[in-house]
């Protein structure tokens, strides 16, 4: 079985990644060094095909090229193969014992790269400028998003929200306690991409028995509720998959408790989903947590802020689209200089390391 998710993305908080969190729960890591998405994806994709028959595989997608992989994880073996260019590139703490590295640099043709050095430099600089512009637009969008939250928070009944959440958790957990240390993993369920926001909610929850679709508005306590569920699960020794918001990584969008076969997630835009199975249920935070009728009282103000928010996210998406174009041109030069035989050697080396 394959599970699809993101571990990095361009957000309102900058480029934000969760690779350190992944590494903390693994015994071994293989980094592909001096690669890039177009050159590492074929390697990772081949490895997924090789091992998906025997293991559950985590397929970590690239947010600029979401149909391509930047890492593959085998949880049962507590190992991962990762495109090192997508990580913080920190020094290796336990070389060979924990971290291993395969170097792709020797597979490139130096003369060809040298002939194209000016083009590579220009593309890299243009891509860096576009990345900063995308982040700035997401930051502005986030400011408008926070302004919407402020409107609804004024109507939030905290006592009621706490009481209803506690009742929900009591029904969810009952007397379950697994008497072990809870394992926590951090991921993104979706990401901002050049084609707009995409998510893997339905894929990640396809084998879950019960799914809770949280509805509501910005600022109506959805993320806070998820944080409380995470805390309670930890106290009970239940493993938790935490899925952060691809727009604001400090906010939570989904929690999966596979040992209970339950998923609770924010089912509002930009990852809006509706129940489609008998054990799918809606939890409406707006109806349950909010007093009054802010939708009606602030209809025009909210509509104006949503318009500003969408305008900025549209500009950010345009930047990501340009980044993809620049990245493809940059990486095409490297692809054209790469020795196919060298790539096959890297695949064989990684297969030997896994086996």
Automatic annotation (TrEMBL):
Domain of life: Bacteria
InterPro entries: P-loop_NTPase
SUPFAM superfamilies (alphabetical): P-loop containing nucleoside triphosphate hydrolases
Protein's recorded name: Uncharacterized protein
